[in-house]
Design brief:
181 residues; 0% strand; elongated
């Protein structure tokens, strides 16, 4: 819906260089009623990357009404713009098990050269979406924990701390798994 796209563009322009906040923008868009979610899904194919990025954020904020858009957000994992891909991977986590069909896309990211940030995001999201694969993914997560990029290492360390609290295995086994990779 063109009106929704135009409003998103206006909001992006108004708030630039700071990203607009989906939480504060969504209430103003509610006037579109039943056209809002399909309009936001349509914005995922917009020619402007800022619109695509913002639409992803708004679709997450509109949950659970927007749960039907998960497949469309997963398609954004193949977007030409890195920031749109990053928004998709980062926000898919909010959909929980509904995003499990993203795993095949994410597997191709495990060998991304030169983009450790997107790679660790892919690895940790895969482990969250399919906990049975956590053990096999621990090698990549452990490697990322020692990455020179502090953002990448922080993501890995936070994930390791969370699974330590939630996975049903003995702490000594966990330490050994992390240590041995």
């Amino acid at each position: 819906m063109k009106e929704i796209r135009d409003e998103l563009l206006q909001e992006v322009s108004r708030c630039h260089p700071q990203w607009p906040c989906a939480t504060s923008t969504l209430p103003g868009l509610e006037r579109f009623g039943g056209d809002l979610i399909p309009g936001l899904v349509g914005c995922l194919a917009d020619s402007e990357w800022e619109i695509r990025h913002f639409a992803i954020c708004l679709l997450v904020e509109a949950r659970p009404r927007s749960d039907m858009a998960v497949a469309d957000i997963i398609e954004c994992l193949d977007d030409e713009n890195r920031l749109v891909r990053a928004a998709a991977i980062f926000r898919l986590d909010d959909f929980g098990s509904l995003a499990a069909s993203a795993i095949p896309h994410l597997e191709s990211w495990l060998s991304l050269e030169g983009d450790d940030y997107l790679c660790i995001q892919a690895v940790t999201l895969m482990a969250k979406l399919d906990p049975s694969r956590t053990d096999e993914l621990l090698v990549d997560i452990r490697k990322a924990a020692t990455n020179d990029n502090p953002i990448v290492s922080e993501i890995a360390l936070e994930f390791l701390a969370k699974i330590r609290e939630t996975l049903p295995f003995h702490e000594e086994n966990f330490r050994q798994a992390v240590k041995s990779g």
